Amino acid sequence: MSASLPQKVLGPGMPGMPPQQQQQPQTHMPPGLAQPGMPPQGALREISPVYLCRIGQETVQDIVTRTMEIFQFTRATQLPNGVTQSQAAYQDRFGKLQEHLRQLTLLFRKLRLLYERCVEMTPDLQESPAELIPYVGEETTPVRVEPCSPAVIQERQEVLEKVRQKNQEMKMLMDQMRNLLWDVNAMLTMRK
């Protein structure tokens, strides 16, 4: 147990809590009652891998949410194409972006700690990569395919023929649209 779990910080906008739980007001509960979804205080030493995986799933959701916020923030940011902006606005945006990136880094560290802890707690469940993905050049067991019934073969042929017909129709429509666009562009060029 070399890696310690990060403590959840209870506060708005902190990385330890998923967004759904951040907006909830904190209520004081009697010591005998624990919050739903949280293990009792005595069980903190004996956290199950399933609970760690759930925390990891919430962390991944937080990472995705933060990443989407960064992309939305950068999309909304105007490029400095010769436009003079105030230095204060630039510093404010830069500070917000730096804070988002710092929070994202903390979430990735937390996820790594959770992963290492789960691997540590479940050594018997670890599979080698060879069991998951066959390597190039390795003999793979052939998959036996049972012959299809004549009705299935007939239906497949009918579907393939319909697809070929639809493809021909689509090709004709695309050619007509291409010719129409060509004519429109030629007319617009002649008007100038």
Write a short abstract of this structure.
The chain has helices spanning about 20, 50-75, 85-120, 130, 150-190. With about 190 residues, the protein is mainly alpha-helical.
Care to describe what's here?
The N terminus is likely disordered. This protein is 59% helix and 0% strand. With 192 residues, the chain is mainly alpha-helical. It is built from five helices and no strands. Helix 2 packs antiparallel against helix 3. The longest helix has 42 residues. It folds into two domains: 98 residues, no CATH class; 42 residues.
Sequence-ordered SSE layout with sheet pairings:
Blueprint: H1 19-22, H2 49-76, H3 87-121, H4 129-132, H5 150-191
End-to-end CA span: 77 Å
Q: Could you list the spans in which at least 5 consecutive residues all have pLDDT below 50?
A: 1-37
- Total number of β-strand segments? 0
Number of helices: 5
Determine the mean pLDDT.
75
Q: Summarize the main sheet.
A: none
Spell the H/E element sequence.
HHHHH
Which word captures the global form?
flat
- The residue fraction in helices comes out at 55-70%
Q: What Rg do the Cα atoms give? A: 29 Å
Domain count: the total is 2
Strand % is: under 5%
Decide which structural class fits the backbone.
mainly alpha
Keywords: Activator, Coiled coil, Nucleus, Transcription, Transcription regulation
GO molecular function, one term: transcription coregulator activity
Biased composition (Low complexity): 19-32
Protein name: Mediator of RNA polymerase II transcription subunit 30
